[in-house]
Amino acid sequence: MMRSAGYTLVTSFPSVRCLVFHPQHRYLSKFTASYSIKSKRLYCCGQHHTLHKTAPMVVAKYSPPRFSIAPMMEWTDCHYRQLARLISKHAWLYTEMLAAETIVYQKDNLDRFLAFPEEQHPIVLQIGGNNLENIAKATQLANAYGYDEINLNCGCPSPRVVGHGCFGVRLMLDPKFVGEAMSVIAANTDVPVTVKCRIGVDDHDSYNELCDFIYKVSSSSPTKHFIIHSRKALLNGISPAENRTIPPLKYEYYYGLVRDFPDLQFTINGGINSVEEVNAALREGAHGVMVGRAAYHNPWQVLKHVDSEVYGAPITDLTRRQVLEKYQEYADSVLGQHGNNRPNVRDIVKPMLNLFHSEPRNGIWKRNVDAAFKHCKTVKQLFDETLPVIPDYVLDSPIAKLPPSRDDIFANVQERIPPPYISSEHELKIQYA
């Protein structure tokens, strides 16, 4: 929330448009804003108002984001996040990307998109968009739900997003706008703001161009944390799935950023599939690691070691039977809560279908679950009918030893880091004039 009485204006960068909502009257005020690197504060003023917002003070009530689960469209919904939290108490969770326009236009139905159980903290809301006014409104509407951070998507290569929507990874080509957007988000929330991006777009894929993006966004906004997907995006001719495999991983770009921007925090993302690989990245100097599809397709094997191996917590005797029992209580409590029979049994059970990945009789269980969707009215009924085919030793075995992983995917990465970045202050001043 923001209050304007008694504040003063200080400027250090050329002004950008800032949108701030009054918390009681819900009106939109237009301000000019700037960001001071020295004081780490955002300043806004209007014709008859002065306003000053300091950078958010973060209380260390959660473990740092050394491990996080990537935002994934149609996958990291509230139900998957509940499963993930039952397995790991310390992993940072992300929502699916929500378009700012969705939040604004669904303001009378926000629980469906933004509500989550208290135990899902720490949790980050990821939003997407290219309209500053809607980004401001969406941020303000989301405040009531108590997210721990707000992240702007600058990395999605989906044609629906970068084409018709004209945001996602396409925003990397306009760092000035991204800086404005991050200032707008920060001006309308009291939690930290972050950016998730790729290492480049099409032919704009040099290390210096990536550094220019990081420099311009961080120096024109309060953004101090970037999540870096270590592949570039190709906008024409390939699918989102191919964009996750065809462009080569360049972890050396990530570690170059860690070296060249010591005042910023960076989380590495892309091609990391196990806790062993997470720890390998951390040993090389990563501030944090984000895992995506591996955590969805194999949640038990990937997430069960996070607390002990990444955060140093004691190993627990948690079993999959216990996870199922706790999840069933949650599941049946939220059935139909949004009306029109949504979420239904199929919606809620969907994340559980990977809980027995590679285990005996997993395929039979999935086929039985698919048949049970046609008549089961509760998740308890479905579990009671289908789980007997899973062997007891699978259901009741506690967390086992860390499984073997691939060879060190970060071997020799330090030798491949590009030469240090040197920004052209004169060029940047011209571009921001």
UniProtKB/TrEMBL annotation:
One term of GO molecular function: tRNA binding
Keywords from the UniProt entry: Flavoprotein, FMN, NADP, Oxidoreductase, RNA-binding, tRNA processing, tRNA-binding
InterPro entries linked: Aldolase_TIM, DUS-like_FMN-bd, DusA
Gene3D superfamilies (UniProt xref): 1.20.120.1460, Aldolase class I (3.20.20.70)
CDD domains: DUS_like_FMN
Residue ranges of every copy of the DUS-like FMN-binding domain listed in the record: 69-381
Protein name as catalogued: DUS-like FMN-binding domain-containing protein
